[in-house]
Structure formats: structure tokens, C-alpha cells
Amino acid sequence: MNLKAKLSALALGMMLLAPQAMSQDAYGFFRGEAFPPPRPTPAAWLLELHKADELLASNIAVATFLPNTRLAWHNHPGGQILIVTDGVGYYQEKGRTKQILRVGDVVRCAPGVEHWHGAAVESGFTYVAISPTQKGATVWAQPVTDDEYRSAASDRRTAPRARKAGSAMRVELAKADDVFPFNVVSATFAPGKRLDWHKDAGGQILIFTAGSGYYQERGQPKQLLRRGDVVKSSPGVERWHGAAAEIGASHIAITPVNAARTQWLDEVTDNEYGVAAVVPQKKAE
Ligand code: MN
Question: Fewest C-beta in 10 Å: which of 77, 108, 135, 195?
């Protein structure tokens, strides 16, 4: 079984073990609000995780689609990165073959390129979208016709490679460039595994996508974080993160590029790791 299959199996196992969470959220995240107009049918939802600010000049949102639901043709003046976190969907650029997207696939939509995305006919579909905002909002065009939606598809097979990096399995999802000035990686920790204390000159945003993990800033209480939780680390703040003691954790990390690389500091001691965790207060859903 390759890593992607293992991650899918892990996520599925967690859903099966957590029926109470499943009743809230069959797709791994809270669904959020109905997708804004032009509202797709049968149904899609959008959950805002981050609003563009000085830490990251991009919006981050989770989009969740019922089967057979697609967006209209559109383009993003600042481009968009899609990271598929659940289900199966489609992505098509104008004049190109429709592609099938699966969990772990990544799409870089170049600025201004006309395209659409949505769920497959027989599967729900969830992705995390990172959208630079400085060049303006999404520009909507005509609906995707039934013929376009049902056109022949090819596999995308992004299949980013995983490698062992310290205490985590690390998958590079997107490398910073002029259009997307941030690195995106997915990290998966076995139970009890954690990073050393570290800091980033440009700060970082973490999105927990599976399991349960810990996050602590120097001098602050250790926090328990679960799937769907988002953590924003200010530039230069010393912190560590990793899995909870008895369950693994996966998170996506978005790190704005900065001349300085991550600075690694002291090890997290067993005493630091072992203190009771607090559960952060969540905004009302
Ligand atoms: Mn798009």
C-alpha cells in the first residue's frame, strides 16, 4: 500500500471509529455555509479557514460538494491551489481534457485560466483551496453543460512523493513561486511523535486534517487540536506541534516564504509533551 492509500485508510478508519463526529461532518471538516452564488446544485458548502491578512495574503477555505455538483466556469485573477482531502472530483481547463482528482491530488490553477471543478457523478468531494486575493476575486462565467460535465476524463495522478523527515512523513504539496509565495506541505505523525521546538521568520498556518495533535507556543498551555482545527503562528514565535500520545495526526502546513528557513531549537522534553492539553474554544459553527 502506498502512502496515499495508507493516509486514505487512516482517514477512513478514523471516520468509522468516530460516529459522533461523522454525524456532524461526513467529509472531514465542518461544512460551513452554502456555497455563494452562482450557487451550485444539488449542493456545495464553503468553510472559511483563513481570511487574507498580513500573515498570508490568501484566503483559505474548505469546499464540500455533494455528488454530481459542479461549479460554473470561472477564473482566479491571482490563481488558486486546490488540495483534495476527500472523495473524487473533476477539474477541467478550457480546451483541455477533464481530469479526475483524488485524495492527495494538488492543482495549481494559473492566474486568469478559465476552468471548473466539482464532485464526480457518484462521489462527494472535498478540497482545501488557497486563493491569493491581491489581484481580485473569482470571475464567474457560463455554467458547465451536462455534455462538458460528462466528457471523457483522464487521471490527474499528481501523486506527490512522501519522505521521512525527522519525526514525520512529509509530502511537499506546493513549492513557493512568484504566483504562490508560500510552501505547502502535509505532515503525518505516528502517535507520540512530535517536532522539536522551532520558529519561522514568516510565521505559519496549520490545518489539521486527520487524527488529534498537540500545538504549543513557548510559555503558553499545550493545546489539543483535532481534524478541521486551524492554528496561526505569528512570525518568530517559538512552538512545537505533533501527534497526540495515543492517536496519529496529519496537518497541512502553509509557510510564507522568507529569506530565513525554519530555525530548529531544543527538543520537546517528555515532561513538556506529557502535560495536560487544553481544548481551544471554538467559534460557534
Ligand atoms: Mn477554481
Answer: 135
